[in-house]
Amino acid sequence: MEEFDKKKKRKKFLEKPLYPGGSRALREFVNAHLQYPQDAIDQRIEGVVTIAYQVNDDGEVESPTVVKSLCPSCDEEALRIVQLLHYNKARNRGIRLKMNSKLNINFRLAPAPTGKTISYTLTSSSKTSNHYSYSITLK
């Protein structure tokens, strides 16, 4: 009996709207459209904003809300990006469906420059010799 259940194909009666290209394409879309707020850059604010939203059966995002906040400008930017999303339509034989979803949007700054520069000087040990020595100075 148990073996029969394993072989039995499970049917999906309701499809949920999916992002075209999957989660990897979703992450690429977010990274491509993210505009780091200038005040967050100035204050070196980094972290994650979590947005909860619904996707209707036409693939449109509805009622996005901030679940985990970082700062007001980052929250606004995360909401703007989520409202740009558009999912594939779900075909469910006339049944209306809304899918609940959450998305984490990472705000990460590039590492600050360390100020170390490498310079080198080329000197020859004698006029007839082809030997050179290098000195590297880290500042």
Could you outline the blueprint of secondary structure elements for this entry?
Layout lengths: L1 H6 L14 H12 L4 H5 L4 E10 L4 E8 L3 H13 L13 E10 L10 E7 L7 E7 L1
Antiparallel strand pairs: 1-2, 1-3, 4-5
Notes on the structure:
With 139 residues, the protein is α+β, with helices and mostly antiparallel strands. The protein is 26% helix and 30% strand. The chain is built from four helices and five strands; from the N terminus they run αααββαβββ. The protein has helices spanning 2-7, 22-33, 38-42, 72-84, and strands spanning 47-56, 61-68, 98-107, 118-124, 132-138. The strands form two sheets. Strands 2-1-3 form a three-stranded antiparallel sheet, covered by helices on one side. The chain is elongated.
The main β sheet shows up as:
3 strands, antiparallel
Shape: elongated
SSE-based structural type:
alpha+beta
Query: Strand order across the biggest sheet?
Result: 2-1-3
Helix run count: 4
> Could you give the distance between the termini?
75 Å
Strand content: 25-35%
Number of strands: 5
Helix content: 25-40%
